[in-house]
Amino acid sequence: MKEKKSNFSNSIGFVLAAAGSAVGVGNIWRFPYLCAKDGGGLFLIIYLILVLTFGFVLLTTDIAIGRKTKQNALKAFGTLHPKWRFLGYLTFLVPALIMTYYSVIGGWITKYFCEYIISDGSALSKDSYFTSFITSKVSPIVFMLIFLALTAWIVYRGVEKGIEKFSRFIMPGLIILILVIAIFSLTLSKKDTDGTVRTGLQGLWVYLYPDFSGLTVKRFLEILLDAMSQLFFSLSVSMGIMVTYGSYVKDDVNLNKSINQIEIFDTGVAFLAGMMIIPAVFVFLGTDGMASGPSLIFISLPKVFEAMGPVGKITAIAFFLMMGFAALTSCVSVMETLVANCMEIFHKTRKQMCSMIGIYSLITAVLICLGYNALYFELPLPNGATAQLLDVMDYISNSFLMPFISFLTSILVGWVIGPKYIISEVERNGEHFGRARLYSFMIRFVVPVVMLILFLVSTGIGNLF
């Protein structure tokens, strides 16, 4: 028996759920790191321009397609045009790959949160702690299982009683935690042995000041690609999530206003994350402390918390609680997309599909955990980096598939069905779509070119030119 179609109860529920999907671990560690690496305020300016152009176009396209067709991503593209049904299956691959490792990262965060709760956290600041934890064979699997079980429980409860209700509680809490820690970071200071004093406000200047020194065309393109890559991380576009969430939006919701609110939420959280992390790391570790990825969250920041003294433990607990919220909202959206798609494929209930996707996620996540010990290998990627199992899944989904899906989607909307299809959906209730002309121009001429370049770079072909 087919279940009744679920919906968000109102626009606020949709905005908070969609913003929760967009605001994830990538916003917290990746955005500050890239900002510090790519010229501070210069990266901020470029990223903001991309959000208002590319981000707006991709987000609008996904959500409008979802609401117009009332289908999840698997069927939505086939509804737009029968010959483009394959695009729905491509979008299905992205969350299927992301789900293999996101709960693993969520387990790492859960582990650190629990450790700070039960101990003073001094052991976590050691350089070897993180490596010894992820390479152990049991502990990462246990904490991954805790995080995955919570994710599955929220998705099992459905759209309104699970995802929306959870987001209404978590998102305000997440914003408050980030804001409090950000303000606290600005009050920090430390005196070095040579008498030099570093303050949080100086760190804020490092974060906001546009550094144009040594800027060349090649360097500008590198920053542009970093910012565009972050955009995919940040807005959950081109992976079927926003199409699925869009299908849950009622027809009387002002789509244009909701999309603007999601942009503000997501970009605001990313900005506050930088304001929270960069000043604190600058004060206690200097500019050398801004390492990327897991090194920033699980190695550099525990050193910062230890250097803070007695208040460090409280700050660490608040930080990893916030990180847990961010990871959970994103993981829920990824699993929901898989469950919604599989309900259509297998014609099963939400309960049955939650169990099925839960088992798939558990098996693949265990394999990812073992990728740091029993299944460890090193594989060179087209971008020159060396990867193991988690990195390979991340690279295929985020750097390879997502630009390719965005390229194909822009061709479909811009040149096959026409931009008016999306614009009419945004203006369904008589709302004014102020960026309609920009949308038409971007989706037809700009997005296809840039996405094709990103795709070629991800495959290594772009390095030949």
Automatic annotation (TrEMBL):
Its main location: membrane. The keyword Transmembrane helix applies. It is found in: Membrane. InterPro entries: Na/ntran_symport, SNS_sf, YocR/YhdH-like. The keyword Plastid does not apply. It comes from the Bacteria. This is Sodium-dependent transporter. It comes from Blautia ammoniilytica.
